[in-house]
Amino acid sequence: MAYEKFTTLISTGVPLKSENVDTDQIIPARFLKAVERKGFGDNLFRDWRYDREGLPKAEFVLNDARYSGKILVAGKNFGSGSSREHAAWALYDYGFRVVVSSFFADIFRNNALNNGLLPVVVPPLFLGKIFAAIGHDAATLFRVDLPQQLFTIVGSGESVPFEINMYKKECLMKGLDDIDYLLSMKGEIREFEKRGQ
Amino acid sequence: MGKTLFDKIWDSHVVRSVEGGPDVLYIDRHLIHEVTSPVAFLNLERRGLQVFRPGQTVATPDHNVPTEGQDLPIGEELSRHQVEMLSRNCEKHGIPLYGLNHPWHGIVHVIGPELGITQPGMTIVCGDSHTSTHGAFGAVAFGIGTSEVEMVLASQCILQPKPRRMRITIDGRLGPGVTAKDIALYIISKISTSGGTGHFIEYAGSAIRALTMEGRMTLCNLSIESGARGGMIAPDETTFAYIRGREFAPQGDAWEKALAYWKTLKSDEDAVFDSEYRFRAEDIEPMITYGTNPGMGITVSGHVPLLEEVAVAERDNFLKSLEYMGFRPGEPVAGKKVDYVFVGSCTNGRIEDLRAFAALVKGKVKASGVTVWIVPGSKQVEKAAREEGLAQMLETAGFVLRQPGCSACLAMNDDKIPEGKYAVSTSNRNFEGRQGPGARTLLASPLTAAAAAIMGVITDPRILMEGS
Ligand code: SF4
Question: Which of B19, B146, B159 sits opposite A181 (nearest CB)?
Fold first, then answer.
């Protein structure tokens, strides 16, 4: 799936302090009936964002006019549960390009990376600082520098390096996906199959 | 240094290691269903590609299907459309499909093992996190996202960083009324829902060896709920006896050859794991969850933790979760009123689960205030339940056996728990809204579910078990 290339992003952040946010919350199962990848952002965090009548719940952070931006800052163990890639699609479609947390569930992390959504792992203490910075001033800017693998709180200049494997980094920076890579090695795959028989 | 079972299987499937990146892993079996595959097929076609190895792919619609009236067209339009798309995609690409009303239809993780498609030493993936179920056979099996489904359709391979290895050893003997489900809920309550993240778990020890294949599947199924990519158990005589004679099991010479290879599939004595846990079977009691993630488990006869018993950093989430569930810190769960009971899912929807449920309710009657959905995991499970007389026995006690599907496990079909209602469920996730918006889920074993169905309140199943 084509997505925007990612190099460096400067944006404000949206704070979602809850921990263990599972993919059933990110996009509830009843919205997975589509056969195309379209419009999932509308149902992002559906049951936290809207009440039964479909009216926005004022207390939920996405409905809070103070917060906006392309960076979602989330509590630890984000994206646990179901493997639905719709969770990554919904976040991307809504406009997020980065999710920052101190810990991600494995499948979500892969799904995000496969869809141009960068998961950034920062130490728990630093995550606390990010939340504090947004709490202090919702207009606080953050810089996510993928080439340097550095996450920075722009105002204070505090920064922290983050990990990403070289291969995925290159894919994100070039907007490439894994299929192209796999297709280029079909011959090798056939050889492998022959050896196994 | 020796190798772990996981290493042996993984390493023998690596086509190439990408420098500074993931491994290109060859996939032996790819299982697909209607929800996570349509976008993958669409992208494949946009690229003008064919399915590379349709014969190594198996499809079944399970997530969306109704569990009543399966001979009729699916009423709900979007669900019907997804199921039809799956049929169309399978037909177009030559993929075997076991659709509604096919004698082999069922939940993808139930039919794979049942048909002998799942075998030791294989790599198996599916766009569903509970693919870990198949690890019960000594396979490396894990859930993937839709982009990855597309990768496998296109190349029979997937790019995947290699997980670390964890071993969980459980020695001893389980007490009466304690099942594989209780082992799993116990483990997750100890290591948390993120304790296994980044790892593949191997379950070992005498208590694991003593489990039936179905019990092993329940345990491996729930590996993902501890955050692990998958869980596995080294194959042994129990495994071989289960596979022998099944539809797609090797036969004749091929069986002998396969068996010889399967017997080599175990961790070496001196293999080193990145992390290890040990538990005693005697410490495990019937478990139930009280909160909104599978790690929030307690014994059925226990109480919701007191605020002081919860780590300071976890308290906000703990209280938020109790508010959703309508529970107070410190209160006992036994005796709480139950509105719904759901028996089914890829965790506990197999014939042994129905047998366990039926054995406990036999000679008793369903509590009047409880709605009970008993949903077999597959057509074959349904058939066996009828042939063994379980269906009849359940009916006598006031229960009805429905038709196979995922059902109330994720409430994509009509089987939804209403807002605010309490459901004792044998499924795998108690997340907010998982079983329907506002539904309150308590995960437990089929025995604990049976006790709730008879008593109308949360009950330790041992109280109802004869001679224990
Ligand atoms: S029964 Fe539940 S967990 Fe299992 S495959 Fe179906 S939806 Fe997923």
Answer: B159
The class (CATH top level) of B164-236+267-283 is alpha beta
Report CA-CA distances (Å) from B218 to B195, B232, B426.
19, 11, 10
Sign, CA torsion B77/B370/B443/B138: negative
Q: What is the pLDDT of residue A1?
A: 54
ipTM: 0.89
Query: Which of A18, A19, A31, A33 to mutate against chain B (most B CBs within 10 Å)?
Result: A33
For CA atoms B356, B358, B364, B367, the dihedral sign is positive
Q: Mean pLDDT for chain B?
A: 96
**Is B429 within 8 Å of A25 when comparing Cβ atoms?**
no
- Residue minimizing CA distance to atom 6 of ligand 1: B406
Radius of gyration over alpha carbons of chain A, in Å?
18
Give start-end residues of each CATH 3.40.1060.10 domain in chain B. 164-236+267-283
Identify whether the C-beta of residue A4 lies closer than 8 Å to the C-beta of residue A97: yes
Asked if B429 lies within 8 A of A30 by C-beta distance, the reply is no
pLDDT digits (tens, 9 = 90+) for B364-402: 999 999 999 999 999 999 999 999 999 999 999 999 999
| pLDDT > 80? residue A2 | no
Phi, psi of B188 (to 5 degrees): -65, -35
Cβ separation of A52 and B145 shorter than 8 Å? no
Tell which CATH classification among 3.30.499.10, 3.90.470.10, 4.10.230.10, 3.30.110.40 matches the domain B21-162. Answer: 3.30.499.10
User: Right CATH number for B289-467 from 3.40.50.11690, 3.30.499.10, 3.90.228.20, 3.40.190.10?
Assistant: 3.30.499.10
For residues B249 and B112, what is the distance between their CA atoms, to the nearest angstrom? 11
B145 and A81: CB-CB below 8 Å? no
Enumerate residues lining ligand 1, CB below 6 A: B 62-63, 107-109, 128, 130, 345-346, 406, 409-410, 427-428
pLDDT digits 0-9 by tens, A130-171: 999 999 999 999 999 999 999 999 999 999 999 999 999 999
When scoring B41, B159, B188, B346 by the number of chain A Cβ atoms within 10 A, the one with the most, hence best to mutate, is: B159
On whether any CB of chain A is under 8 Å from the CB of B371, the answer is: no
- Specify the domain boundaries for CATH 3.30.499.10 within chain B: 21-162, 289-467
Alpha-carbon gap: A6 to the closest alpha carbon of chain B (Å):
18
Cβ distance B15 to A80 less than 8 Å, yes or no, reads: no
- Which residues of chain B neighbour A22 with C-beta distances below 8 Å? 293, 429, 431
Question: Average pLDDT for residues A170-184, to the nearest whole number?
Answer: 90
Q: How far is CA B36 from CA B102, B143, B167, B435, in A?
A: 21, 11, 30, 19
